[in-house]
């Protein structure tokens, strides 16, 4: 194709040779102009052709670029597909029906443990790798693919296989057939994936699912239908997995409150995870259980599911409620304990203050309850306490608060008291409620109680003060003979303070060795000889004043200090008797008084044995004086201890005989050696015929039982003469000598023997 540059110079308007002002020779100006127009037309035609050619070139270039881009994208897609197949362990395979050849991708080789191209795959080799148990199923799948008419439905099968290295794996095989126009299968191709790890994970999940200690549920979030439940759920709520699948919690009537169910589901939609949601579910039997739900929303194949762990916390809640109850109630009777009682009392007091009313605090203590525990056992004692609590509730009514403080002590708070006579009326009802016999262990028991009463706000405005006042009044009720009640008075507090000070004094006196022993001689009435002494304890105060035993023995018994005090008296009396022998005095019997508290709380046999051993005193030189009241408290146990003491060789005597129990049967069983006639009968024996008759009767009875008799409180010669006439064996009293310190006895004995000789 010619361009503008190929025109002859004479035709080119740009050529310097072309002159418009001077036309070529032989041509006219009109001819020249016609030639120029023809040249311009030809030039325009050439330009159009050039532009068309350029457009064709541009189109080819764009097509080449598009082809290059398409090739690049295909290469990239191919690489991505290879990477996905490698990461997913997804291999490709193809079997050609005509040539009976099998082709594997690199990933398929790797699945079976071969390097790419290491072996020539065949259908027989493939089936040989499949475990024998699954081989027929895989073969059947291939046959189904060959016969399958619908190419849109590829077939799949899971099977076990062994790699070339012997490792056992799990695979999934998918296949579809390519067919000709007549529908004949030309080839089968598909994918092979190693799903060993997936199945292992699923097995672990199912193992954890079934072994979970909590009920576990997989359900749909949309309609709540259960897809699966584990065995623990079945055991907890009575629905087997087969019965629960395909049904919702509403269908199984699990939810006690459906409003709570809707709230739970709404919160789960909002938060995806909802732990420790406490509610109530219903067992298949109808029993309501406390449960804690911990749920997690999960998406499987774009479907929202819920994995729920159900923890049956019924036992925990019951235990927690029990703990809460026991924190404020007595476990034996179910009554409020001191903590709850105090709270209720303070609330009642605040209410009474607003109304201008009064309150009363009743402090109750069962009389001789320890005897029930010791004789019948603690289970019987517990039954007694339970029955007492029931009776108190019946008497006090619903407007009062009753509490067991521990042991056999109860408190009753009476609120809104407008008339103090009502307090006495209720107190009388409480006392009367105990008159009916109690029954425990097939036995009928009589029981009574003592009661101290304090009034709010007269006796105290706070609980502790009022309780102290009621306790003081209770002590006075017991001192008044029990089975009664006493209102608190300020004078009681003074007495209680005196008792407290006295106990403090006794404790300090024990620590600082301020107790001393005085000894009163005991005389043989037939011969007039000194045969023994009675050891009498005294308290010598820091100011030198001497306190007689009547001033502190009761306090020592109440406080338990009588046990260490009694042990000291035993040791000191035995030691002193031995010191007198060493000084040349005749061998004397030393009499020591024993308290019932020493029998109950101390190891009396050990104390006596130790005192005799330490002093080196012969057991027959120790006489133990017992009060008749000892036999009232657990007589069988006392008798057993006394027999052990008797076997030790010591003498036993009954002190103050005639004023207490005075059971002749027990005298026989105790095998005592001596009776001491109480001074209340001896003092007026010379002037009172009744006293004289009683003394003669005691002496006659004792002689019949072959017992020695000693009379105390002999203050006159006439009394001594009468006792001698009635054949009383021994006597002691001011007529012979007053109690004296140990160091004074040798001097007195010398003077006494001198008077006898004169």
List the defining traits of the structure above:
46% helix, disordered N terminus, eight-stranded mixed barrel, Beta-Lactamase, 758 residues, five-stranded antiparallel β-sheet, 5 domains, single chain, elongated
Layout of secondary structure:
Blueprint: H1 29-87, E1 90-96, E2 101-104, H2 106-111, H3 123-129, H4 132-147, E3 155-162, E4 168-179, E5 185-194, H5 196-211, E6 215-220, E7 226-229, H6 231-237, H7 241-244, H8 258-271, E8 273-282, E9 288-300, E10 303-312, H9 314-328, H10 338-355, E11 358-366, H11 369-376, H12 378-396, E12 401-406, E13 409-417, H13 421-433, E14 438-440, E15 443-445, E16 449-456, H14 463-479, E17 485-487, H15 490-511, E18 515-524, E19 530-540, E20 546-547, H16 553-559, H17 562-583, E21 589-593, H18 596-601, H19 604-615, E22 622-627, H20 635-648, E23 651-657, H21 664-670, E24 674-677, H22 679-682, H23 689-704, E25 708-711, H24 717-725, E26 730-731, E27 740-741, H25 745-757
Parallel strand pairs: 16-17, 19-21, 21-22, 22-23, 23-24, 24-25, 25-26
Antiparallel strand pairs: 1-2, 1-5, 3-4, 4-5, 6-7, 6-10, 8-9, 9-10, 11-13, 11-16, 12-13, 14-15, 18-19, 18-26, 18-27, 19-20
Summarize the amount of helix as a percent range.
40-55%
Total of helices: 25
Write out the CATH superfamily name of the largest domain: EAL domain
* Global mean pLDDT: 83
**Rough outline:** elongated
Q: In terms of per-residue confidence, which ranges show pLDDT below 50 for 5 or more consecutive residues?
A: 1-21
| Topology-level CATH name of the largest domain | TIM Barrel
Largest sheet: 8 strands, mixed, barrel
How many domains is the backbone divided into? 5
CATH class of the largest domain: Alpha Beta
Rg from Cα: 59 Å
Pfam families: EAL, GGDEF, PAS_3, PAS_8
Keywords: Coiled coil
Region (Disordered): 1-25
Domain PAC: 155-207
